[in-house]
Amino acid sequence: MKTKIYYVMDTMCGWCYGNSEVITKIQEKYKDIYDFTILPGGMWTGDNVKKMSSGLGDFIKGHNLEVEKLTGKVFGEGYNKNILEGNSIVLDSFPGAKAVVIIQKIKKEVVFSFLKKIQDAFFVYGKDMNNLEVYTEIAESFDISSKEFEKEFHSEGLRQDTFKCFDMANSMGVTSFPTVIAVKGNKVAIKSQGYSSFDDLDKIFSSSNFDK
After folding, report:
1. Alpha-carbon distance 25 to 12, whole Å?
2. CA-to-CA distance for 136 and 132, rounded, in angstroms?
3. How far is 69 from 89, CA to CA, in rounded Å?
């Protein structure tokens, strides 16, 4: 049985956006060796849902400068204008988390590419990620029916499955995003926390004792 790799992230996490190219390349390189699963962590959910304000926007802008400097990923003009400079945007991780869980359920082989498109919609183009149409359009680009996606999105079963993902991330000791976790049998090992370059993460995955 393949060692399971859980990539714990949040669709509204700037560092996860910065890490998107790295983890996609890692998954592509090692997908035949390890069983990769994306695990939404629920950064801004429940009482932690935020409404954008000038103070919060300025704080995030400063944070994003660090992300750009270290990762080379650039936050788009649409994101800066529509999200960080807007006063009506609600930052809620739950819709994005549900979308990831849906794709993992019905077409797992495209989930890392789907995640990148969600991140681009938010961090590059500044789309309102509370708008279901944003997700259905992305789903359709992967030949997934918008009706099928919407039906799953509104189901109680999906709601519960998404909460289970949050609980699982907490139970494995995740304290920051992104985090890479290897699970083999009953052994759970955190392999990486925060941003890692491709070379650094590749060294971890290619290590002879990675899953021992």
Report:
1. 20
2. 6
3. 26
Q: State the average pLDDT over residues 170-196.
A: 94
Question: Given the structure tokens 């949050």, which residue do they identify?
Answer: 166
Cis peptide leading into residue 178 (ω within 30°): yes
Q: Are 105 and 152 in contact (CB under 8 A)?
A: yes
pTM, two decimal places: 0.95
Structure tokens at 205: 């995955």
Q: What is the pLDDT of residue 207?
A: 87
In this structure, are residues 54 and 87 in contact, taking their beta carbons and an 8 Å threshold? Answer: yes
The token pair that represents 24 in the structure block: 């996609």
Please write the tens of the pLDDT for every residue from 79-104.
999 999 988 899 999 999 999 999 99
Distance CA(131)–CA(136), nearest Å, equals 9
Rounded to whole angstroms, the Cα distance separating 162 from 143 reads: 23
Q: How far apart are CA 101 and CA 37, in angstroms?
A: 10
What is the rounded distance in angstroms from the CA atom of residue 184 to the CA atom of residue 192?
A: 16
What is the C-alpha separation between 121 and 103, in angstroms, rounded?
A: 16
Mean pLDDT of the residues in the chain: 95
Of 201, 158, 157, 207, the closest CA to residue 7 belongs to 201
Smallest CA-to-CA distance from 116 within 138, 132, 83 is with: 138
